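Dear colleagues,

As part of the handover before I leave the project, I'm documenting each prediction I ran so the next person doesn't have to rerun anything. This entry is a single chain, and its sequence is reproduced below.
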Amino acid sequence: MRPLPRAMALMGREADGARLPASARPRDTQTTGILLLLVSVLLFTLMDATGKHLTERYHPGQIIWARMALNLVIVLVILAPRLGQVIRSRSPALQVGRGLTQLGSIACFFTALQFIGLAEATAIMDINPVLITLGAALFLGERIGIRRIIGIAVALAGALIIIRPGAGVLHPAAVLPLIGAVSYAAGAVMTRMVRGDSTATSILWSTGVATIGASLVAPFVWQPIQTGDLWAFVVMGVLGTMAQALLIRAFSLAEAAAVAPFGYTGLIWAGLWGWLFFGVVPDLWTFVGAAIIVAAGLYVWAREAQAARSAQREARSRAAQVDAAGPDGFAP
Protein backbone atom coordinates (compact mmCIF):
# COMPACT_ATOMS: atom_id res chain seq x y z
CA MET A 1 0.00 0.00 0.00
CA ARG A 2 1.20 3.43 -0.88
CA PRO A 3 1.65 6.43 1.37
CA LEU A 4 -0.82 8.82 -0.18
CA PRO A 5 -3.37 8.43 2.60
CA ARG A 6 -0.72 9.32 5.15
CA ALA A 7 0.08 12.45 3.18
CA MET A 8 -3.50 13.63 3.24
CA ALA A 9 -3.95 12.59 6.87
CA LEU A 10 -1.08 14.86 7.80
CA MET A 11 -2.43 17.79 5.77
CA GLY A 12 -1.49 21.00 7.49
CA ARG A 13 0.95 19.44 9.96
CA GLU A 14 4.41 17.96 9.68
CA ALA A 15 5.44 14.57 11.03
CA ASP A 16 7.87 15.29 13.84
CA GLY A 17 9.69 18.55 13.77
CA ALA A 18 8.82 22.20 13.52
CA ARG A 19 5.64 23.24 11.81
CA LEU A 20 7.01 25.81 9.43
CA PRO A 21 5.08 27.39 6.58
CA ALA A 22 6.29 26.75 3.06
CA SER A 23 7.75 30.25 2.82
CA ALA A 24 9.97 29.55 5.83
CA ARG A 25 11.44 26.40 4.35
CA PRO A 26 14.39 26.54 1.93
CA ARG A 27 13.41 25.64 -1.61
CA ASP A 28 16.06 22.89 -1.82
CA THR A 29 14.63 21.33 1.35
CA GLN A 30 11.15 21.25 -0.16
CA THR A 31 12.58 19.69 -3.33
CA THR A 32 14.45 17.05 -1.33
CA GLY A 33 11.26 16.16 0.52
CA ILE A 34 9.36 15.73 -2.74
CA LEU A 35 12.14 13.55 -4.20
CA LEU A 36 12.15 11.36 -1.08
CA LEU A 37 8.39 10.93 -1.33
CA LEU A 38 8.69 9.92 -4.99
CA VAL A 39 11.25 7.25 -4.07
CA SER A 40 9.03 6.14 -1.19
CA VAL A 41 6.07 5.71 -3.52
CA LEU A 42 8.24 3.71 -5.92
CA LEU A 43 9.35 1.38 -3.13
CA PHE A 44 5.81 0.96 -1.79
CA THR A 45 4.54 -0.11 -5.22
CA LEU A 46 7.44 -2.54 -5.61
CA MET A 47 6.48 -3.98 -2.23
CA ASP A 48 2.89 -4.34 -3.45
CA ALA A 49 4.08 -6.08 -6.62
CA THR A 50 6.20 -8.47 -4.53
CA GLY A 51 3.18 -9.19 -2.35
CA LYS A 52 1.03 -9.93 -5.41
CA HIS A 53 3.72 -12.35 -6.61
CA LEU A 54 3.58 -14.17 -3.27
CA THR A 55 -0.24 -14.38 -3.29
CA GLU A 56 0.09 -16.83 -6.18
CA ARG A 57 1.57 -19.38 -3.74
CA TYR A 58 0.70 -18.29 -0.20
CA HIS A 59 -2.32 -17.14 1.77
CA PRO A 60 -2.53 -13.35 2.26
CA GLY A 61 -2.61 -13.90 6.03
CA GLN A 62 0.85 -15.47 5.93
CA ILE A 63 2.20 -12.72 3.66
CA ILE A 64 0.81 -9.95 5.84
CA TRP A 65 2.27 -11.56 8.96
CA ALA A 66 5.73 -11.78 7.39
CA ARG A 67 5.50 -8.17 6.21
CA MET A 68 4.42 -6.80 9.58
CA ALA A 69 6.67 -9.02 11.70
CA LEU A 70 9.83 -8.01 9.84
CA ASN A 71 8.77 -4.38 9.99
CA LEU A 72 8.22 -4.67 13.75
CA VAL A 73 11.65 -6.21 14.28
CA ILE A 74 13.31 -3.32 12.42
CA VAL A 75 11.26 -0.74 14.33
CA LEU A 76 12.18 -2.35 17.66
CA VAL A 77 15.87 -2.32 16.75
CA ILE A 78 15.72 1.37 15.82
CA LEU A 79 13.74 2.40 18.90
CA ALA A 80 15.53 0.07 21.36
CA PRO A 81 17.52 2.84 23.14
CA ARG A 82 14.31 4.69 24.09
CA LEU A 83 11.76 1.91 23.88
CA GLY A 84 10.57 2.37 27.47
CA GLN A 85 9.68 5.98 26.74
CA VAL A 86 8.25 5.51 23.26
CA ILE A 87 5.96 2.62 24.14
CA ARG A 88 3.93 4.76 26.57
CA SER A 89 0.81 6.17 24.93
CA ARG A 90 -1.68 8.72 26.20
CA SER A 91 -4.41 7.17 24.06
CA PRO A 92 -3.87 3.39 24.05
CA ALA A 93 -7.42 2.58 22.92
CA LEU A 94 -7.08 4.82 19.88
CA GLN A 95 -3.66 3.38 19.12
CA VAL A 96 -5.10 -0.15 19.16
CA GLY A 97 -7.86 1.03 16.86
CA ARG A 98 -5.28 2.50 14.50
CA GLY A 99 -3.38 -0.77 14.39
CA LEU A 100 -6.52 -2.79 13.68
CA THR A 101 -7.65 -0.47 10.89
CA GLN A 102 -4.18 -0.63 9.34
CA LEU A 103 -4.29 -4.42 9.49
CA GLY A 104 -7.78 -4.43 7.98
CA SER A 105 -6.80 -2.21 5.07
CA ILE A 106 -3.67 -4.24 4.31
CA ALA A 107 -5.65 -7.49 4.51
CA CYS A 108 -8.27 -6.21 2.09
CA PHE A 109 -5.63 -4.96 -0.34
CA PHE A 110 -3.49 -8.10 -0.43
CA THR A 111 -6.52 -10.38 -0.61
CA ALA A 112 -7.79 -8.41 -3.60
CA LEU A 113 -4.42 -8.82 -5.33
CA GLN A 114 -5.13 -12.53 -5.64
CA PHE A 115 -7.99 -11.79 -8.02
CA ILE A 116 -7.53 -8.37 -9.67
CA GLY A 117 -4.67 -6.41 -11.18
CA LEU A 118 -2.23 -4.28 -9.21
CA ALA A 119 -3.26 -1.12 -11.08
CA GLU A 120 -6.97 -1.68 -10.41
CA ALA A 121 -6.45 -2.34 -6.70
CA THR A 122 -4.16 0.66 -6.35
CA ALA A 123 -6.53 3.00 -8.19
CA ILE A 124 -9.47 2.01 -6.00
CA MET A 125 -7.40 2.38 -2.82
CA ASP A 126 -6.50 5.90 -3.93
CA ILE A 127 -9.97 7.01 -2.96
CA ASN A 128 -9.04 7.08 0.72
CA PRO A 129 -7.69 10.66 0.81
CA VAL A 130 -11.16 12.02 0.10
CA LEU A 131 -12.64 9.52 2.56
CA ILE A 132 -10.29 10.95 5.20
CA THR A 133 -11.71 14.39 4.48
CA LEU A 134 -15.24 13.01 4.85
CA GLY A 135 -14.38 11.18 8.06
CA ALA A 136 -12.79 14.28 9.56
CA ALA A 137 -15.99 16.19 8.88
CA LEU A 138 -18.22 13.49 10.35
CA PHE A 139 -16.22 12.58 13.44
CA LEU A 140 -13.89 15.51 14.15
CA GLY A 141 -16.25 18.34 13.33
CA GLU A 142 -14.02 19.74 10.57
CA ARG A 143 -15.96 21.93 8.18
CA ILE A 144 -16.16 21.05 4.51
CA GLY A 145 -18.01 23.02 1.87
CA ILE A 146 -20.24 21.84 -0.93
CA ARG A 147 -17.33 21.82 -3.38
CA ARG A 148 -15.37 19.28 -1.38
CA ILE A 149 -18.52 17.21 -0.88
CA ILE A 150 -18.93 17.12 -4.66
CA GLY A 151 -15.25 16.12 -4.99
CA ILE A 152 -15.81 13.22 -2.59
CA ALA A 153 -18.86 12.07 -4.55
CA VAL A 154 -16.95 12.27 -7.85
CA ALA A 155 -14.10 10.17 -6.41
CA LEU A 156 -16.60 7.53 -5.31
CA ALA A 157 -18.04 7.53 -8.81
CA GLY A 158 -14.55 6.95 -10.20
CA ALA A 159 -14.11 3.91 -7.95
CA LEU A 160 -17.47 2.52 -9.10
CA ILE A 161 -16.42 2.96 -12.73
CA ILE A 162 -13.41 0.72 -12.07
CA ILE A 163 -15.36 -1.84 -10.03
CA ARG A 164 -18.46 -1.77 -12.32
CA PRO A 165 -20.69 -3.69 -9.91
CA GLY A 166 -23.10 -6.02 -11.67
CA ALA A 167 -21.27 -5.87 -14.99
CA GLY A 168 -19.31 -9.05 -14.33
CA VAL A 169 -16.12 -7.43 -15.63
CA LEU A 170 -13.99 -7.55 -12.50
CA HIS A 171 -13.89 -10.22 -9.83
CA PRO A 172 -16.19 -9.47 -6.85
CA ALA A 173 -13.01 -9.08 -4.80
CA ALA A 174 -12.62 -5.70 -6.49
CA VAL A 175 -14.78 -4.28 -3.72
CA LEU A 176 -12.13 -5.20 -1.14
CA PRO A 177 -9.80 -2.25 -1.92
CA LEU A 178 -12.78 0.04 -1.41
CA ILE A 179 -13.41 -1.52 2.00
CA GLY A 180 -9.68 -1.23 2.67
CA ALA A 181 -9.80 2.45 1.76
CA VAL A 182 -12.61 3.01 4.28
CA SER A 183 -10.62 1.14 6.93
CA TYR A 184 -7.49 3.17 6.27
CA ALA A 185 -9.43 6.42 6.33
CA ALA A 186 -10.80 5.44 9.75
CA GLY A 187 -7.25 4.89 10.95
CA ALA A 188 -6.16 8.25 9.55
CA VAL A 189 -8.98 9.99 11.43
CA MET A 190 -7.83 8.26 14.61
CA THR A 191 -4.31 9.50 13.85
CA ARG A 192 -5.61 13.05 13.95
CA MET A 193 -7.23 12.28 17.30
CA VAL A 194 -3.97 10.96 18.80
CA ARG A 195 -2.27 14.32 19.19
CA GLY A 196 -0.48 13.61 22.46
CA ASP A 197 1.71 10.78 21.10
CA SER A 198 4.86 11.14 19.04
CA THR A 199 5.21 9.72 15.54
CA ALA A 200 7.55 7.03 16.90
CA THR A 201 4.92 5.97 19.43
CA SER A 202 2.24 5.78 16.78
CA ILE A 203 4.44 3.72 14.44
CA LEU A 204 5.40 1.32 17.23
CA TRP A 205 1.81 0.80 18.35
CA SER A 206 0.32 0.43 14.86
CA THR A 207 3.04 -1.99 13.77
CA GLY A 208 2.85 -3.96 17.01
CA VAL A 209 -0.95 -4.25 17.06
CA ALA A 210 -1.05 -5.23 13.37
CA THR A 211 1.62 -7.88 13.94
CA ILE A 212 -0.25 -9.34 16.92
CA GLY A 213 -3.47 -9.42 14.91
CA ALA A 214 -1.78 -11.11 11.97
CA SER A 215 -0.16 -13.61 14.35
CA LEU A 216 -3.61 -14.79 15.44
CA VAL A 217 -4.43 -15.76 11.85
CA ALA A 218 -1.09 -16.95 10.48
CA PRO A 219 -0.99 -20.38 12.24
CA PHE A 220 -4.27 -21.39 10.57
CA VAL A 221 -3.14 -20.54 7.03
CA TRP A 222 0.59 -21.22 7.31
CA GLN A 223 2.37 -23.36 4.80
CA PRO A 224 6.09 -24.06 4.54
CA ILE A 225 7.97 -21.35 2.68
CA GLN A 226 9.89 -22.66 -0.29
CA THR A 227 13.57 -21.78 -0.35
CA GLY A 228 13.14 -20.04 -3.69
CA ASP A 229 10.56 -17.67 -2.18
CA LEU A 230 12.53 -16.55 0.86
CA TRP A 231 13.99 -13.64 -1.07
CA ALA A 232 10.52 -12.28 -1.85
CA PHE A 233 9.46 -12.27 1.81
CA VAL A 234 12.68 -10.53 2.85
CA VAL A 235 12.53 -8.02 0.00
CA MET A 236 8.92 -7.18 0.79
CA GLY A 237 9.74 -6.43 4.43
CA VAL A 238 12.85 -4.41 3.59
CA LEU A 239 11.07 -2.40 0.89
CA GLY A 240 8.21 -1.57 3.23
CA THR A 241 10.54 -0.43 5.99
CA MET A 242 12.71 1.66 3.65
CA ALA A 243 9.64 3.25 2.09
CA GLN A 244 8.22 4.11 5.52
CA ALA A 245 11.52 5.66 6.63
CA LEU A 246 11.77 7.77 3.48
CA LEU A 247 8.16 8.82 3.91
CA ILE A 248 8.76 10.08 7.44
CA ARG A 249 11.90 11.89 6.32
CA ALA A 250 10.03 13.50 3.41
CA PHE A 251 7.41 14.95 5.76
CA SER A 252 10.10 16.21 8.13
CA LEU A 253 11.66 18.21 5.28
CA ALA A 254 8.64 19.45 3.32
CA GLU A 255 5.08 20.47 4.06
CA ALA A 256 2.48 17.74 3.68
CA ALA A 257 0.48 20.05 1.41
CA ALA A 258 3.49 20.33 -0.93
CA VAL A 259 4.25 16.63 -1.28
CA ALA A 260 0.77 15.05 -1.10
CA PRO A 261 -0.10 15.33 -4.83
CA PHE A 262 3.02 13.39 -5.81
CA GLY A 263 1.65 10.30 -4.08
CA TYR A 264 -0.52 9.72 -7.13
CA THR A 265 2.59 8.80 -9.13
CA GLY A 266 2.13 5.35 -7.59
CA LEU A 267 -0.63 4.72 -10.14
CA ILE A 268 1.97 4.94 -12.91
CA TRP A 269 4.29 2.51 -11.16
CA ALA A 270 1.46 0.10 -10.32
CA GLY A 271 0.40 0.01 -13.97
CA LEU A 272 4.00 -0.51 -15.09
CA TRP A 273 4.71 -3.33 -12.62
CA GLY A 274 1.41 -4.99 -13.51
CA TRP A 275 2.42 -5.01 -17.17
CA LEU A 276 6.10 -5.97 -16.68
CA PHE A 277 5.71 -8.64 -14.00
CA PHE A 278 2.21 -10.03 -14.57
CA GLY A 279 1.39 -9.19 -18.18
CA VAL A 280 -1.76 -7.30 -17.16
CA VAL A 281 -2.74 -4.10 -18.96
CA PRO A 282 -5.60 -2.10 -17.37
CA ASP A 283 -8.64 -1.63 -19.59
CA LEU A 284 -10.01 1.72 -20.75
CA TRP A 285 -12.54 2.05 -17.91
CA THR A 286 -9.80 1.54 -15.33
CA PHE A 287 -7.90 4.47 -16.84
CA VAL A 288 -11.06 6.58 -16.86
CA GLY A 289 -11.94 5.73 -13.25
CA ALA A 290 -8.37 6.30 -12.08
CA ALA A 291 -8.25 9.68 -13.83
CA ILE A 292 -11.51 10.71 -12.13
CA ILE A 293 -10.21 9.61 -8.70
CA VAL A 294 -6.93 11.50 -9.18
CA ALA A 295 -8.71 14.64 -10.41
CA ALA A 296 -11.17 14.56 -7.52
CA GLY A 297 -8.40 13.86 -5.01
CA LEU A 298 -6.27 16.73 -6.26
CA TYR A 299 -9.29 19.04 -6.17
CA VAL A 300 -10.08 18.13 -2.57
CA TRP A 301 -6.39 18.50 -1.71
CA ALA A 302 -6.33 21.98 -3.29
CA ARG A 303 -9.41 23.03 -1.32
CA GLU A 304 -7.87 21.70 1.90
CA ALA A 305 -4.63 23.53 1.22
CA GLN A 306 -6.54 26.73 0.49
CA ALA A 307 -8.53 26.38 3.71
CA ALA A 308 -5.31 25.79 5.67
CA ARG A 309 -3.71 28.91 4.18
CA SER A 310 -6.79 30.98 5.01
CA ALA A 311 -6.71 29.73 8.59
CA GLN A 312 -3.01 30.64 8.86
CA ARG A 313 -3.66 34.15 7.49
CA GLU A 314 -6.49 34.68 9.97
CA ALA A 315 -4.31 33.48 12.84
CA ARG A 316 -1.48 35.82 11.82
CA SER A 317 -3.94 38.70 11.47
CA ARG A 318 -5.36 38.11 14.95
CA ALA A 319 -1.86 37.85 16.40
CA ALA A 320 -0.87 41.13 14.72
CA GLN A 321 -3.96 42.85 16.14
CA VAL A 322 -3.13 41.62 19.64
CA ASP A 323 0.47 42.83 19.30
CA ALA A 324 -0.67 46.20 17.99
CA ALA A 325 -3.12 46.62 20.86
CA GLY A 326 -0.32 46.44 23.41
CA PRO A 327 -0.37 44.94 26.92
CA ASP A 328 -3.30 47.09 28.05
CA GLY A 329 -5.51 46.04 25.12
CA PHE A 330 -5.43 49.44 23.38
CA ALA A 331 -3.54 50.44 20.27
CA PRO A 332 -0.72 52.89 20.97
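The chain has 14 helices and no strands. Confidence is low (pLDDT under 50) at residues 3-24.

All the best with the project,
I.
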